[in-house]
Amino acid sequence: MHMKMKVQTLEDVAKKIFEEYEDEPQGWRIFIGQFPNDEHFLNIIVAGPQKIRQLKLESAYKPNPLVVCKEIDEYPKTKTLYFGLRPLREETLRKVFRAVSRKDSPALFEIFKSVFSAAPIAYSEFADKEIPVGLQGPVMRGPLEYISEKQQRLDAKLNAELKRVVRREYSMYG
């Protein structure tokens, strides 16, 4: 059975995800990495409160690479912080600069722990509040592990589809 997926640009996929984040900025996690059977494609798993997507990119080095994207049922259940935009107020920035100038890693860790414990806000809310600086993240990066055989089969299909599309788009290269 051939799985037909819509090939999109990263810009188009990111726009959809951004709109969903704006509507509901809490409950997001993002993972970037490669699965054991990946040749050279990069995976991004975006787990929002309503949808979980696996994006497979042809390249991390192009400004707007080809992407195959599929909604998935599950993602790595790890105790990571939620992704999002958090405001950095002036007092917090002063604390960061003091800790950096003193090379005080434990103090810096505590500051960022405090910042990331705050609930993420929408980008529009950030602009409305005239907050000078925001901290976006975290994005978890590293090797990805399959959660189930179903995910492993889906990943193989995404790999095959992206290879097919890359060969079609760049047929002059081989």
Could you characterize the architecture of this molecule?
The protein is of the alpha+beta class and 174 residues long. It has 2 domains: 7-81 and 138-173, no CATH class; 85-136, no CATH class. It is built from 5 helices and 8 strands. The chain has helices at 10-23, 90-101, 105-117, 123-128, 149-169, and strands at 7-9, 29-33, 42-47, 52-57, 66-71, 84-88, 133-137, 140-141. The strands form 2 sheets. Strands 1-5-4-3-2-8 form a 6-stranded mixed sheet. A hairpin with an 8-residue loop joins strand 2 (29-33) and strand 3. Helix 2 (90-101) packs antiparallel against helix 3. It is elongated and about 55 Å long.
Topology:
Blueprint: E1 7-9, H1 10-23, E2 29-33, E3 42-47, E4 52-57, E5 66-71, E6 84-88, H2 90-101, H3 105-117, H4 123-128, E7 133-137, E8 140-141, H5 149-169
Parallel strand pairs: 2-8
Antiparallel strand pairs: 1-5, 2-3, 3-4, 4-5, 6-7
